[in-house]
Amino acid sequence: MSLVVERTLRANGLSFNLAEAGDGPPVLLLHGFPDSWRLWRHQLAALAKAGHRVIAPDLRGFGKTDRPAGVEEYKLRTLIADVVALLDVLHVDRAAVVGHDWGAALAWAVTRFVPDRVTRLVVVSVGHPIAAAAAGLAQRQRSWYMLWFQFPGVAERVLPEDDWAFFRHWAWNDARPGEDPDADRQVADLSRPGALTAGLNWYRANIDPATFVISDPTGSPSCLWPAPRWACGPAATLPSRRRR
To answer: Structure pTM?
Structure first.
C-alpha cells in the first residue's frame, strides 16, 4: 500500500494542509462541505496503487487549512486561484480533477475557466450547473439549506445545539455520538473556533438568493447555477491559466 503523507504548504497567501500518495499522472481530489482530505482516504490508496500521484488538500476554511475571516475571502474566483496556486507550488502542470459537493462545483469551475490545467474531470453528487438550474422547483426545495445558510449567526447557533443534534439528523441520518466515526470527525472539525462560519462562507459568498429560483438558465449563458454571481463574468477576472 502506498504511504499517505500529510504536510502543509503555502499557496495563494494561505497555509494549506494536504495529503499525498503515489507517483505518476496527477489526480487532484477536492472535498466538499463540511469535510477535509480525509473524505478521500480510501481513494488516495486505491489511486496511488493504480499508478497515480494523488493530491487531496483541505480546501480553504476546512480541516487544518487556514480559515480567513470575511465572506469575500470565499468567492469562487478565489477558490479557483487556490487550486491554480496549489498546482503551481506542487509543480503540477495539468491534473485529473475529481470533486464532491462544493468540491464538485469548484471542479466544474476550474475546468471551465482554466481548462488547460485539467486533463480529465470527474464530479460526484453535483451535476453540470446549467442542468441543475433547469431542474425546477423540486431541486430548489431539496436545496433549502443553501438559503438558510445565508443568515449570519443563525446556522452557527442552531447546528451546534444539543451536541449537534440537528446536524446529525440532517447530514447523518440521526447518527448519535460514537455511532459513526465520520460524523464524529465532522462534528469535531466544525466545533473548532471559526470553522463552522468558514464552511458556511462558501455558501454566503457564492449563492445569490435573488437568483436562486432562476427558471431560464439558457437566458444567461455566461452564468452557472446555483450562483450566477460566483460564475458570471469574463474569464479574465480569474487566475492565470498556465504557470509562468
So the answer is: 0.88
